[in-house]
Amino acid sequence: MRPQTDPEISARRVALDAEIRCLHERLALLKRERNTLAPLSTLPNELLVKIFHFYVLATAADFRAKGTVISVCRHWCQVFRAAPTLWSHIVMYWNPEQSFPLEISRSGAMPLTIRVPNFSSTSHSSLILPHVARIQSLDLRGPRQVLDFVQSMAALAFPLLESLTINFYDYTVGNEEEIDARLSLERLDERLPRLSELSLFGIYANWASLPPLHSLSLTRSLRSGAILNPITLDDLLAVLESSPALHYLYLCAILTGAIPEKHAPIPVQSLGHLDLRENLVYCQYLLTVLAFPPSTRLTLHSPNILNGADIRAILIPIHRHLRAPGAPRATTVMLRTRDDFHDPEEEDTYFQIAVYAGPPPPKGDEGHLFVIRTNPTSAHALRQILCKVLKALPTEMVSHLDGRNARLSCKTWSTALALLPVLEHGRGHVSAIEEHFQQSSLQPGHRLTMDCYINGEGKLAVAVVI
Taxonomically, which superkingdom (predicted)? Predict the structure, then answer.
């Protein structure tokens, strides 16, 4: 065989390179054709950015979320990096000295949302302070360093700040030690002119200086020293009177002071959710004095509801609210206990009743119309509470009872079922339900479908006709 000369080898190499280029082009064309079959690949960049924005908000607690999107493909990486709005939501975790400047530079001139889950380093302050003029939402949680930042806020202006959350906790502080954990509200119109959402945990303020708000959340920290400036009921009423557009109110062990003898109703017709975790007398008074619409969701967690006698008075405004014209139609009742009440002295034992307009969510209480959590001292007290609450509800419309998360006795089940005349579907633990049907008090001919649970896991759906 004749050896090939250099020109022949070069010619063959040129031909092979041309063939390789042709194959690459055909492969790229094939990839483009394949990608057109995936709807996500046909979306314009503007719509991709909106989708990514929802993802960033939903995964704000995951510091890997942005990196996950960027690593999917080159196109997503380019779209994500070129969108300042996606970098304007910043969560500062460990070693923010590296990630924070990068996110700030990529956010352009967008208003900033900054969240610090553990504000425990002075580096957090040094990184945040140069950008206070751009901050629209600020959420700080941590020990003493949070107080240092709060005190420095008195000399700063936040012209864009709309939402402020400060959560101070310090488990090294004695319960009697006085801590100056106050938020300065002087010259508020100049320093925080747009503030409309305020959430304070273990932080107190000159309450008379609060501006009209859309959202207010106040929580007392029981392990961060003595309160220097608690909010009295009179202070709170003044804040509520100045906030007619209030949409959300959350109060947890924060109120002090006497109950006023008389007070005109306070209209809060935009109130979407009223969440009270206070002494029973404060809950009862606020339910009476606040004039909110029938659509307002109610959450009541009062530690001193121990039996049926305790709950009687507070059910009057609740009964009126749930039956008001225009109120959502209550169709589902969910029961929940921490324990099965074999030991009533168990700490943190509770009994919760939640009402929904449709099927309850898999977890949590979101979407409820009404939730009340009590601390019955015995199984008998639990039945008293259950009986009184169900009588206050519009039970003529309740068709579903969910007791999967409640360990209830046969006697308690009998109490519940007897007060729900149109019940069609129930869920509960099989042992108690089986015992109930052996002694059933349901009307003859009543058809009830039960999903019976064994230890909260095994499931047996049975149709019961009595």
Answer: Eukaryota
Q: Give me the numbers of helices (H) and strands (E) for the chain, helices first please.
A: 16, 22
In single-letter form, the type of residue at position 206 comes to N
What is the distance between the alpha carbons of residues 296 and 249, in angstroms, rounded to a whole number? 11
pTM across the whole model: 0.81
46, 116, 363 from 66: Cα distances, Å:
17, 17, 26
For 197-229, the pLDDT digits (tens) are 999 988 887 787 888 999 999 988 765 444 555
Q: Show Cβ contacts of residue 370 under 8 Å, excluding neighbours closer than 6 positions.
A: 297, 298, 299, 318, 321, 322, 330, 354, 355, 393
Counted domains in the chain: 1
* Interatomic CA distance for residues 249 and 218, integer angstroms: 8
Neighbours of 436 (CB within 10 A): 24
Number of Cβ atoms within 10 Å of the Cβ of 22 = 10
User: Which residues, at least 6 apart from 180, have a Cβ–Cβ distance to it below 8 Å?
Assistant: 147, 151, 228
The answer as to whether 43 is a domain residue is yes
Q: What's the full length of the chain, in residues?
A: 466
Q: Is residue 41 part of a domain?
A: yes
| Residues 134 and 160 sit within 8 Å (Cβ to Cβ) | yes
Question: Number of C-alpha atoms within 13 angstroms, CB side, residue 445?
Answer: 0
- Considering the domain boundaries, does residue 27 fall inside one? no
Structure tokens at 439: 């002694």
Per the DSSP assignment, residues forming a β-bridge with 298 are 274, 370
pLDDT tens-place string over residues 391-405: 988 888 888 888 888
Q: Which domain holds residue 59?
A: 34-87
Q: What is the largest CA-CA distance in the chain?
A: 116
Please give the backbone phi and psi of residue 284, each rounded to the nearest 5 degrees, phi first: -60, -40
In a domain, 42, yes or no: yes
